[in-house]
UniProtKB/TrEMBL annotation:
The keyword RNA-binding does not apply. Transmembrane segments: none annotated. This is 3-hydroxy-2-methylbutyryl-CoA dehydrogenase. GO terms for molecular function: oxidoreductase activity. InterPro entries: KR_dom, NAD(P)-bd_dom_sf, Sc_DH/Rdtase_CS, SDR_fam. Residues 9-195 form the Ketoreductase domain. Belongs to the short-chain dehydrogenases/reductases (SDR) family. It comes from the Bacteria. Keywords: Oxidoreductase. PROSITE patterns: ADH_SHORT.
Amino acid sequence: MRLEGISAAVTGGASGLGLATARKMIKAGAQVTLIDLPGSAGAQVAQELGDAARFVAADVTDEQQFASALDAAGETGPLRALVHCAGRGAHIRLVEKDGQPGALKPFEEVIELNLIGSYNALRLGAARMARHEPVDDERGAIVLTASVAAFEGQIGQIAYTASKAGVVGMTLCAARDLASKAIRVCTIAPGIMDTPLLGGLRNDVRASLEDSVPHPRRLGSPAEFGALACSIVENPYLNGETIRLDGAIRMAPR
């Protein structure tokens, strides 16, 4: 599928991996709708990106808001690509240092955003793509975001790991489910990426993280994530696969 001229939506598009993806898509000629929370910098970012970008505020766990945002994305043309980057983590231990059981609410919140939000992206995005006529034998492509934590979750990442492992588990199933609609599904599992979330790290901590990556010995660039997302959308034979983008890192227990 050529990105030039298509309508695409990117969740979490106001910053980090989502913003980098939107930039790459716009450079390739797509019309991109950034979907992010009302309190995000989405409106300012869309203005900076130019006429090919627009911002719609929505919570991806809210069915009505997310559906309306995807409908808005379809106003610039049939929605052909959806890259779902919205998500977050929480530090939870099963038994805390004071002997109390790990908190339940933050676990539920991470599952709701990362896993249920991804399910919402799949079902709501695919339903809209399925209405369109195929172009070059396909109607659309959906790219989800997991993490290497889906495979090597570290201590304290149990909520994040469970949610991202769920995303990986859905990928092939979703691709098979949507094959009859000519819609592809793939997932990117990034390693340690140089996003704003890591911007406040001390230099020594950052150096230690970089040293844990075999090659290249540095943090991943959001632009590299965006480039891979665009490649997935453009390559019609990529389907049902989770692709690690991690410099060959394998996470230690802590």
